[in-house]
Amino acid sequence: MDVAPVSRGRPLVNFTLRVRALLPLALVFSPLTADAEVRPVAARLIWRAPAGSGCIAATDLEGAVEERLRRRVFAARADVVVEGRVERTEGTWTARLEMRTERGEPIGTREIRSEAESCSGLDESLALVVALMIDVSEERIRLRIPVRRERTRGWHLQTEVGGATALGWLPGFALGLRIGLSVDPPWGWPVLVDGVAWADERVSDAQGGADLEGRQAAVAVCPPIVRGRRLGVAACVGGGAAAIRATGYDFLDNDDGAAVLAFVSAGLRGSFRLAGPLMMEAGVAGTAPLVRHRFFYEDPAGVQRVLYRMHAVAGIATLGLGVAIP
Description:
By secondary structure, the protein is mainly beta. The chain has helices at residues 25-29, 58-69, 123-134, 138-144, and strands at residues 3-7, 10-13, 15-16, 43-48, 80-89, 92-101, 106-114, 156-167, 173-184, 191-198, 201-204, 209-221, 224-227, 231-249, 256-275, 278-289, 294-298, 304-309, 314-325. The chain folds into two domains: 3-144, no CATH class; 156-325, Porin, CATH 2.40.160.20. The strands form four sheets. The protein has an eight-stranded antiparallel beta barrel with strand order 8-9-10-12-14-15-16-19. Helix 2 (58-69) packs across helix 3 (123-134). It is rod-shaped. Mean pLDDT is 81; it is low at 1-36 and 143-147.
């Protein structure tokens, strides 16, 4: 038996104990007082030992503990759980005991070693140590392990304003003004709602041309990838609707018209807290219109001449400032 001697023939079992507060050891392992109103704890034993090793069985260990404490200890509904396992390494039997509350909060650990040929050499020490671990009152367990209440996240809002640029949405590099609102509920993923007003883009050929202006609105779900105190990164997937209006010029008969379309989008967005509630926002996304509209005119011979057709995929980049609430 690997022990530290305190008197001839009387060993102490090696042990380690984790505590959450600097309470006297007597509060942890002292026997119950005679106060009839103090209820001792009920326990549940989880015991693992190698088959055929001669280790004490779980039911025998429970009986030996209850015999020492002279009361019923083990029950299906328990205040604490004692989990033990035995293994043999380099000729030494080692039993590790861990005690925790039913909620899984750790209370303490102990370790017993024996160099006996059989695992049964641990039996008497196991019964003693488990009895000492369990011989505390329910009130003392509550003092030692305060209930930890998780802080629930509240609602978080963030307003955003900034600029946007797109390639493949309108002719050339389109520039626009963007506003957005991010809603982060205490459950689920943040939701981003935004809109962009694109500046006019001009497209023409030898016969004439058209000014194209666009407006779009979108909503996306943004599961966070990084959620830090100052830096946040999220992947966003969503969709929206857009309207593109074309106004002809330099034709004999100038006309105008509008096309409405739906699109899907996916991208990344990041935020960085500058100071207090002030945030910097940036994002990139790819959008794909469900219908690729054409903008064309008919020449004097009645042939359709295409001035512009939307790309199958457009890229959009955004940059701006936001205010987090709260």
